[in-house]
Design a protein that fits this description.
This protein is an alpha/beta fold and about 325 residues long. It contains 9 helices and 9 strands. It has a 9-stranded mixed sheet.
């Protein structure tokens, strides 16, 4: 009989290696299972709880009263579900909206994260739908119809920041907001210059007729999706006359995509629009938690909400047709 050439030491080493491999595989599987899987698990893992100090900062930033007297009791459906990236600012936005409702009396708000709210019967209870940093939403065809019918028949729609990162397979939904996310060269840690395109517009009252600087993450939009100035009343945009705004475009990933010189790149940030009998207000501000304790931004948001609700009269003639004067550029950064 032929004797085995495998030594006891080698056998032990192979057994140990096999056991280690099996152990590593089991640990990896357990870790994968431990990662949040459902929306409920993901939001629980991702959302911070506002501190008492942050709650006070938000409360202090909320305007003291409604800009316009509501024609009747107004109610907003606030949706915050995410199928894609989950912004930590969502709970701060939800809290700001609750506090705004209580402090100003401009509206009341129901905060939800489930798709079954999008029915004609349920939406009839509301005056506007607000998308608070939602991403990748996928309403089914019946829900899509309910949303579009609601707006076309006189309801308002309001979008905060990542509201423009939704409805990828629903072109009408993308058009409803005004465009879809195509990256953010202007990151959340940067302070960016903004030009005031419509200094006398009621929805720009918070900025006192001036350009300004603000720290936030700013999107640009897929060109084929963006509704443009022919359909949108652009309220303010990035001021590309400033080097700080042009610098993020000076890299090998972005430069080949530019069709114009960096100083001519057009990046609208807030806009409004008439849609059927309804109204849209969208602002790209809101990536950062502290956006919601910036008093000027909160006034801008309140005014946009009241416009969408139909209580604050504002011209929505598209910018291309409105014969606006020269925009007010941002000052030199202090």
């Amino acid at each position: 009989m032929r004797k085995s050439t495998t030594s006891p030491v080698r056998t032990l080493t192979l057994l140990s290696a096999t056991a280690a491999l099996i152990g590593s595989t089991l640990i990896a599987q357990q870790q994968k299972k431990a990662e949040p899987q459902t929306w409920e698990e993901k939001k629980a893992a991702r959302f911070p709880v506002p501190t008492d100090e942050q709650k006070k900062l938000i409360a202090d930033a909320i305007p003291a009263k409604a800009t316009a007297q509501p024609a009747k009791a107004r109610k907003i459906l606030v949706m915050y579900r995410c199928e894609g990236f989950i912004h930590t600012s969502i709970p701060f936005g939800n809290l700001a909206l609750d506090q705004m409702a209580a402090k100003t009396g401009a509206f009341s708000a129901d905060v939800v994260d489930n798709y079954d709210v999008f029915t004609a019967e349920n939406l009839a209870k509301y005056d506007a739908i607000l998308f608070n940093n939602t991403t990748g939403l996928k309403p089914n065809p019946d829900q899509q119809k309910a949303i579009l019918d609601f707006v076309n028949n006189g309801g308002g729609v309001i979008g905060i920041h990542a509201a423009a990162d939704n409805f990828g397979s629903w072109p009408e939904g993308i058009a409803l907001i005004g465009g879809i996310f195509n990256g953010h060269p202007w990151g959340a840690g940067g302070k960016w210059a903004f030009k005031n395109e419509d200094p006398k517009h009621p929805l720009m009252a918070a900025f006192g007729g001036k350009g300004f600087w603000h720290t936030d993450e700013i999107y640009w939009y897929k060109p084929e999706s963006f509704e443009g100035r022919e359909r949108l009343r652009v309220l303010f945009s990035l001021d590309m006359s400033h080097e700080a705004n042009r610098k993020p475009l000076d890299n090998e990933k972005v430069k080949p995509t530019l069709k114009v010189a960096p100083e001519q790149v057009d990046v609208p940030v807030s806009w409004c629009r008439q849609i059927g009998k309804g109204r849209l207000f969208y602002t790209n501000l809101g990536h950062r938690d502290d956006t919601f304790w910036n008093a000027a931004v909160m006034q801008h948001l309140l005014d946009g909400i009241q416009y969408a609700l139909g209580d604050l009269a504002a011209d929505a003639t598209p910018s291309a047709q409105a014969k606006l004067g020269a925009p007010v550029l941002a000052p030199a950064e202090s």
